[in-house]
Amino acid sequence: MDNGQYAIRWIPSYDSNVSKLIENLAFKCPDDLISFKGNPLSKYDQVICAISMFFTGFAYYIYYNIKPGLMKSLKNNIYYDLFFFESQNLSVKGVENTLNDWLSPLFKEFDFHFILDVSQENEMFIITPKVIIDDESFNLSDILSSGKYPEIIRNSNIISDLFSKYQLDMDLNQTIMLDIKDFLFFNYALIKRFEKNGIDVILPDELTIEKSAKLSLTSDDDFSSKTTLTLDDLDKFDWKVAIGDETYSLNEFENLSKNYAGLVKINNKYLRINTDDLANINSQTDLIPINPTQNDLMHFIEWRYRKTGYWNKG
Length: 314
Known about the structure:
This protein is an alpha+beta fold. It has helices at about 15-30, 45-65, 70-75, 80-85, 95-105, 140-145, 150-155, 155-165, 180-195, 205-210, 230-235, 250-255, 275-285, 295-310; strands at about 35, 40, 110-120, 125-135, 135-140, 175-180, 200, 215-220, 240-245, 245-250, 265, 270. It folds into 3 domains: about 10-90, no CATH class; about 95-205, no CATH class; about 215-310, no CATH class. Helix 1 crosses helix 2.
């Protein structure tokens, strides 16, 4: 930005094919490939940054090293033409207005703004688009059906456009419901896109406040009166995962957390678990022997105590 003006180089999310390629690269991108001023970037932004740096370097190379004859031949190269030659005039009807809607958060100030309110019900995620006018919240579907706010109605297209660019076709006049698979994609790929376009996403507490989880050695028998435990007592203990006041067997926890990317399904609701806790549990359970002997248990308990500094007997 210079003197209040923005220079737009490229808009990768506007083209569905480019967007899909970037999402595939982002899925494979490590968490810490690129950072900015010591702060981590999202995987999507890391890919965008890497591509931008690559083409910046390519541009400098072209400027200082390329021969005129080769420059002429590159005019037929689609990638070179995309980044380094004059932009083409927009000719598809309606594209100009759509681009204006997408870029409007950069240069326009409105007396309203959109939010996406997320809740859970019966293992489904419900997304309710809303609009805030003068600090008062209204369901966007009511605004759309009333037809009284043409500017809000026109600008709401960006919400459906962002969904459709990621192959999620949503009708803003109806309740938006996502299963866990679609919600994980929404959480991973779309939330930052909405926020960058000035649309707040409000998640419920269970998806923003991380629950702690730990591996615990528990028993149904009461050993509170004992000051020491015998080897025979160890046979009465079992490894479980404790989340709050609830405990789950290792098989139960695996089924509850499998393929949920840091979420755990408990009582028909998904909760966010601390990622470090999940990593610790996974690394420790991989070392628990199958059908352990008393000696196996003693060695594992000793190893775990040295590793974590504690053990829970439940």
